[in-house]
Automatic annotation (TrEMBL):
The keyword Transferase is assigned to this record: yes
Name of the featured protein: DNA-directed primase/polymerase protein
GO cellular component: mitochondrial matrix; nucleus
Domain of life where this protein originates: Eukaryota
Keyword Nucleotidyltransferase carried by entry: yes
Molecular functions (GO terms): chromatin binding; DNA-directed DNA polymerase activity
Keywords: DNA-directed DNA polymerase, Nucleotidyltransferase, Transferase
Similarity-based family: Belongs to the eukaryotic-type primase small subunit family.
GO BP annotations listed: error-prone translesion synthesis; mitochondrial DNA replication; replication fork processing; response to UV
Swiss-Prot/TrEMBL catalytic activity: DNA(n) + a 2'-deoxyribonucleoside 5'-triphosphate = DNA(n+1) + diphosphate; ssDNA + n NTP = ssDNA/pppN(pN)n-1 hybrid + (n-1) diphosphate
C-alpha cells in the first residue's frame, strides 16, 4: 500500500478504491459519474494503478496532507465527459540537438490552436502580442527534464467544448493534417516539391516532409500557411525525431483514447521528480 493510499484511507475511511475502472463505475450511479466528482487514478510503485473518485474539496484536502513526491495522481476522462482542448507536446532532446529554442514548436502550435478554436480575424493583432492573447485562454504546464521536453496545454477558458476525448482527438488530427498539407503545398525559392492532393494519411505527409525539415526551419522564415502569425519555419518545429531517429509529431496523439488518464497539476510519475507545473 502506497503512502498516498494510506492517507486517503485515513482521511476518507469510506472511500472506494479499486483496481479496475469497471469496478469503480459499477458501484456508482450514472448521476454521480456525470456530476462534478473528479475520477482519479493512483500510480503505485509497481506501475499498477488504483482508482477512486472525490469532490474538489476532498482533493484539496488530500493535496494538503500528501507529501509532494507521493502525489502520483491522474484524472480519468470518461467517454461521457465533455472535455476542454488539451495537448501533450513532447520530444527527446538528444535526438533533436538541432533545436536550440525548445519553445518555438510549442508556442507556434499553441497560437494555431487559439486561432482555430476562436475563429477570429488574427490579422488585426500584432505578432509579438498574439502569444499574450493566446495565454489568456490557455494554461501551459511543463514537466521537462534534461532528456525530454514536455509541455501540456489546457484550454482553461474555453470557447469550445468537445463531446468526449475521442472527438477532441479527431479534431486535433484533422488540424495537424491540414497544417502539414498546407506546408507541402507552399512554394518558395527554397522549397518546391511536386504534390497532388490524394488519399494521404498524416503519416504519409510526415514522410514527405521528413527530408526537408532542416530546409523549412532555416529558410522558410517568411513563408506562411493559412495563419499569418506563425511562419512555416516555426511550424516545422512540430516535426521532431523520436528515439529511433524517425520523424514524428511532437504532439502525442495517443492520449485521445477511451478512459484516458491525465496527470494533475503538481503531480509526478512514480519514481520521478519532474512535477507537472
Amino acid at each position: 500500500m502506497t503512502i498516498l493510499i494510506q492517507i486517503i484511507k485515513n482521511l476518507f475511511p469510506s472511500k472506494i478504491i479499486t483496481h479496475h475502472i469497471c469496478d469503480l463505475v459499477n458501484q456508482l450511479s450514472e448521476q454521480i459519474i456525470k456530476s462534478n466528482y473528479v475520477f482519479l487514478s493512483i500510480e503505485n510503485e509497481n506501475k499498477t494503478r488504483q482508482l477512486f473518485y472525490s469532490t474538489i474539496e476532498e482533493l484539496i484536502t488530500l493535496f494538503n496532507h500528501c507529501p509532494r513526491n507521493e502525489r502520483t495522481l491522474c484524472e480519468i476522462i470518461f467517454p461521457t465527459n465533455l472535455v476542454k482542448t488539451c495537448i501533450d507536446f513532447e520530444y527527446y532532446t538528444d535526438n533533436n540537438l538541432d533545436i536550440n529554442d525548445h519553445c518555438i514548436g510549442a508556442s507556434s502550435f499553441l497560437k494555431i490552436l487559439h486561432f482555430t478554436l476562436n475563429f477570429i480575424d488574427h490579422k488585426h493583432h500584432e505578432n509579438q502580442k498574439y502569444i499574450d492573447i493566446t495565454l489568456q485562454q490557455f494554461l501551459v504546464l511543463e514537466a521537462s527534464t534534461s532528456q525530454k521536453i514536455s509541455y501540456h496545454f489546457l484550454h482553461a477558458n474555453p470557447t469550445v467544448l468537445f463531446e468526449n476525448n475521442t472527438t477532441l482527438g479527431i479534431f486535433i488530427q484533422m488540424l495537424i493534417h491540414v497544417l502539414l498539407t498546407s506546408i507541402i503545398q507552399h512554394t518558395c525559392s527554397h522549397f518546391n516539391i511536386p504534390f497532388k492532393l490524394q488519399k494521404y494519411t498524416t503519416s504519409d505527409l510526415i514522410i514527405i516532409l521528413s527530408p526537408h525539415i532542416t530546409t523549412l526551419r532555416l529558410h522558410c522564415t517568411k513563408c506562411y500557411t493559412f495563419y499569418s502569425h506563425v511562419s512555416i519555419s516555426e511550424i516545422a518545429h512540430v516535426l521532431v525525431m523520436n528515439k529511433q531517429n524517425q520523424c514524428t509529431l511532437a504532439i502525442d496523439l495517443n492520449v485521445y483514447s477511451k478512459n484516458q488518464q491525465f496527470r494533475l497539476y503538481d503531480c509526478v510519475k512514480q519514481g520521478q521528480n519532474n512535477f507537472l507545473r
